[in-house]
Write a structure and sequence with these properties.
With 366 residues, the protein is an alpha+beta fold. The protein is built from 13 helices and twelve strands. The strands form four sheets. Strands 1-2-8-5-3 form a five-stranded mixed β-sheet. It has a three-stranded antiparallel β-sheet with strand order 4-12-9. The chain has a two-stranded antiparallel sheet with strand order 6-7. The structure holds protoporphyrin IX containing FE.
């Protein structure tokens, strides 16, 4: 069968040698991105820390923004918590929660939420609206109800948070201010959300508590973006396309994490270029995932594409939650593929320097 081309998202740079931009470097080739990620002389920009229980404290305590001497021990806390979670069980739990949510929306469980949505579209107000499972049933918005909610709620329950549903808006608020450059109002909301998450977290030493919350925050936007991309590109795909293959190609061609940052610790050389001490580097996964040196016919969606994607990073700071992310996304996407079809409405994205997550994405019930 012939598979479609998926063009790069807007502002994806072409793949080429490291390019100087604004006093730093943009790195786009697969081999150069891997070289930086696996070279300890390039470090993650470190977060300074702040008063206990605040966003600044969280950022200063999680492995993600830790200096090289603190990173391994803190990463081990997150890895240990993840080791207790079985990806198959996560996938099943995500599928169940997705099914239940769709049942509520279609009225298949007797709930009237979907019926109200259809009346609003012009059905006779006096008409009795039963369960909506036929082709004329309502649309659903996937991002808020499922993609942003299900993975975090499932993970929060397994990580022992007392109120997994309440964790979802709190994690979303923290994620919105997690990366540098958030505005003061978002930071204030995130401060309150960190306090709320600590209050529903199991008792633990501060570093363990922070890195448990860190897992949820790292999971939130990226997994939502992956689900959004899979729905956008894969809802109409033939059923013979396995969901694992769909997710793998979507991660490559429309990565929810488009880039990450490093800083050079000395005068270094990368692909023949002199990189000055303290130079910031932006490593573009979106460009490297289309590197023709690794991916023949790079823009074509090809299940089982050799070479894979760099979207989970690489090296000692690569994503420790890859299997969990894929399992959670697969649970949601499998149910959506079985029960929904594309609505054909345009997809918009929240502006962000490194993430690509739809703001809303509609589907129709089959
Ligand atoms: C599609 C979903 C996801 C993507 C694309 C993704 C991608 C990434 C990437 C690229 C990094 C490394 C950043 C860097 O090196 O600068 C990272 C780190 C991390 N991710 Fe993920 N991630 C996803 C989901 C998850 C999930 C579900 C979890 C937890 C269950 C998780 C936990 C983490 C943690 C804790 C780190 C920091 C690791 C460290 O400090 O060494 N991620 N992720």
């Amino acid at each position: 069968m012939s598979w479609p081309m998926i063009p790069p998202a807007p502002d994806t740079p072409p793949c080429g040698p490291p390019a100087p931009v604004d006093g730093g470097w943009v790195v786009t080739r697969h081999a150069d991105v891997v070289a930086v990620l696996t070279d300890p002389r390039y470090v993650v920009p470190v977060a300074p820390g702040g008063p206990p229980g605040t966003l600044a404290w969280l950022r200063g305590t999680v492995s993600r923004f830790s200096a090289p001497d603190r990173h391994p021990g803190r990463r081990a806390l997150g890895v240990a918590a993840l080791r207790d979670l079985d990806p198959d069980e996560l996938r099943d739990a995500a599928a169940r929660l997705t099914d239940e949510t769709l049942d509520r929306l279609t009225g298949a469980d007797g709930d009237r939420e979907a019926a109200t949505a259809v009346r609003g579209r012009g059905a006779d107000p006096g008409e009795s609206v039963g369960p909506l499972t036929g082709p004329a049933a309502a649309r659903a918005e996937v991002m808020g109800r499922l993609a942003r909610r299900v993975p975090v709620e499932v993970l929060a329950a397994r990580l022992g948070l007392a109120d997994p549903a309440a964790a979802v808006p709190a994690v979303t608020a923290v994620a919105a201010a997690y990366h540098p450059g958030a505005d003061p109002a978002a930071v204030a909301r995130a401060d309150r959300a960190v306090a709320a998450l600590l209050a529903i977290s199991p008792p633990a030493p501060a570093e363990a508590a922070a890195n448990r919350i860190g897992l949820l925050v790292q999971a939130a936007d990226a997994t939502a973006g992956l689900i959004g991309a899979a729905v956008r590109h894969g809802l109409a795909a033939p059923a013979a396309l396995g969901t694992a293959d769909l997710l793998a190609e979507v991660l490559r061609l429309d990565p929810p994490v488009r880039a990450t940052r490093r800083v050079a610790t000395g005068a270094l050389r990368l692909a023949g270029r002199a990189i000055g001490p303290d130079a910031p580097l932006l490593l573009r996964f979106d460009a490297a995932n289309r590197d023709p040196a690794v991916h023949p016919d790079p823009d074509r969606f090809r299940p089982g594409h050799p070479g894979g994607a760099l979207t989970f990073g690489a090296g000692p700071r690569g994503c420790p939650g890859e299997r969990h992310a894929l399992a959670l996304a697969a649970g949601v996407v499998e149910v959506l593929r079985a029960r929904c079809r594309p609505a054909g409405t345009p997809v918009r994205y929240a502006p962000h320097p490194t993430l690509r997550v739809p703001t809303s994405l509609e589907v129709m019930f089959r």
